[in-house]
Design brief:
Bound molecules: NADPH dihydro-nicotinamide-adenine-dinucleotide phosphate, 2-oxoglutaric acid, magnesium ion
Largest sheet: 12 strands, mixed
Radius of gyration: 22 Å
Strand order of the largest sheet: 4-3-5-16-15-6-7-14-10-13-12-11
Site (Critical for catalysis): 150, 222
CATH class of the largest domain: Alpha Beta
GO molecular function, one term: isocitrate dehydrogenase (NADP+) activity
InterPro entries: IsoCit/isopropylmalate_DH_CS, Isocitrate_DH_NADP_dimer_prok, IsoPropMal-DH-like_dom
Mean pLDDT: 97
Number of helices: 14
Binding site for Mg(2+): 297
CATH architecture of the largest domain: 3-Layer(aba) Sandwich
Distance between the termini: 29 Å
Modified residues (N6-acetyllysine): 132
Length: 408
């Protein structure tokens, strides 16, 4: 049988019945969670469509496995495959702290211009939580995925480049240079945030809110301090709402309201530190979140903790224009657990369910949600949930995957 590829035409994804889908196994716990996830995804598709549809998996290399086999961390063939097959999925990849290679995860997002990092945060009944009413937390984060401090424009203390930057600041912006407390020993990072980058991200959040009949989009920023990056993000977000969606002032502004096809979406904003306390105190007031790259990173893990932790926090990196998408868990490689068949495969499984929804294979995705909910209800779970639940049965990573399949 010849290979079937996902394509896009006029903004609509065409998914054949047997699409080839590239996957990266991932470093660390990738060896544990990926096989469990693949089994769950294949079982859900088989059960939903009785063999009429299936995924043809194509392994592509990145990270330690790639380096060991090819001497490269991110072989060009891997990027080519994600371009060619349009949609893929990946396990986590290691990024050293303080030196060494830059993040391969970030590189993939930037190379393929996957500008929206979409991370839904919902509570599955019975999941252990540190808050009294976890069901009130139901948010979808749209994190800008290509700009901000993640652009990686950094200058290491004491290097020629850092000295050049110091000289440039001193001669061109002397007043600003005076604010550098210890210039000789300062490292620097640049934070590019653009109008186009903000518009496309906020647009995807607003469009999602209308598609999913959600009632608000909140712009989360630290614009009081970083006026021309985070503050501009807020301003450009509101401008987009007005200029592209005909938003009107809500209760005198600055909040906006958009009315379309009988549905209303409020566009509002909140400063990031206040938001981090409000997600604990008043979570029901937030639905779709549009934010910058670094805020989105922090917010993802903080929100995940409320509904069960990063063992069950899925995500997608999407370019809504090209159709390119790579689905991946919010968590990392959790190296201390690597190869122990121990951790929760829930995040990558739910990322896979998001991928099936992206294909339009909702029936298969629903089977995964059903299987997961039933496994949690039966208290047959991995260590992260078991340690917080009374009377639960401890399952291995692979056993939890099998349990989901059994309960579909
Ligand atoms: N997209 C990606 O590929 C990402 C990669 N990374 C990279 O991963 C590496 C490790 O990062 P680190 O900061 O330790 O963060 P991790 O997300 O890898 O792990 C932090 C902690 O989260 C919990 N955890 C993570 N995954 C699971 C799971 N599947 N099931 C249950 N619990 C889980 C564990 O908590 P506990 O100890 O309480 O059991 C773990 O110790 C770094 O190199 C980092 O750069 C990080 C984030 C995303
Ligand atoms: O790339 C990394 O190592 C970290 C990425 C990350 O934390 C995230 O995407 O949430
Ligand atoms: Mg993160």
């Amino acid at each position: 049988m010849s290979e079937q590829k996902i394509t896009i035409s006029n903004g609509v994804l065409n998914v054949p019945n047997n699409p080839t889908v590239p996957f990266i196994e991932g470093d660390g716990i990738g060896v544990d969670i990926w096989p469990a996830a693949q089994k769950v995804l294949d079982s859900a598709v088989e059960k939903a469509y009785s063999g009429a549809k299936s995924i043809v998996w194509k392994e592509v290399l990145a990270g330690e496995k790639a380096f060991n086999q090819t001497g490269e961390w991110m072989p060009a063939a891997t990027l080519d495959a994600f371009r060619e097959y349009l949609v893929g999925i990946k396990g986590p990849l290691t990024t050293p702290v303080g030196g060494g290679i830059r993040s391969l995860n970030v590189a993939l997002r930037q190379e393929l211009d996957l500008y929206a990092c979409v991370r839904p945060v919902r509570w599955f009944e019975g999941t252990p939580s540190p808050v009294k009413e976890p069901g009130l937390t139901d948010m979808v984060i749209f994190r800008e995925n290509t700009e901000d401090i993640y652009a990686g424009i950094e200058f290491e203390k004491g290097t020629e480049d850092a000295k050049k930057l110091n000289d440039f600041l001193k001669s061109t912006f002397p007043k600003k240079f005076e604010k550098v407390r210890f210039p000789e020993t300062a490292g620097y990072g640049l934070k590019p945030v653009s109008e186009e980058g903000t518009h496309r991200l906020v647009k995807s959040a607003i469009d999602y809110a209308f598609e999913q009949k959600r009632d608000s989009v909140t712009l989360v920023h630290k614009g009081n301090i970083m006026k021309y990056t985070e503050g501009a993000f807020k301003t450009w977000g509101y401008e987009l709402a007005k200029n592209s969606y005909g938003a009107k002032d809500y209760e005198g502004g600055p909040w906006q309201i958009i009315e379309k096809d009988g549905h209303q979406v409020i566009i509002k904003d909140v400063i990031a530190d206040a938001f981090l306390q409000q997600i604990l105190l008043r979570p029901a007031e937030y639905s779709v979140i549009a934010t910058l790259n670094l805020n989105g990173d922090y917010i993802s893990d903080a929100l995940a903790a409320i509904v069960g932790g990063i063992g069950i926090a899925p995500g997608a990196n999407i370019n809504y224009l090209s159709g390119n998408a790579i689905f991946e868990a919010t968590h990392g490689t959790a190296p201390k657990y690597a190869g122990q068949d121990k951790v929760n495969p829930g995040s990558v499984i739910l990322s896979g369910a998001m991928m099936l929804e992206y294909f339009g294979w909702q029936e298969a995705a629903n089977l995964i949600y059903k299987g997961l909910e039933a496994s949690i209800a039966k208290k047959r779970v991995t260590y992260d949930f078991e340690r917080l639940m009374d009377g639960a049965t401890l399952l291995k990573c692979s056993e939890f995957g099998d349990e989901i399949v059994k309960n579909m």
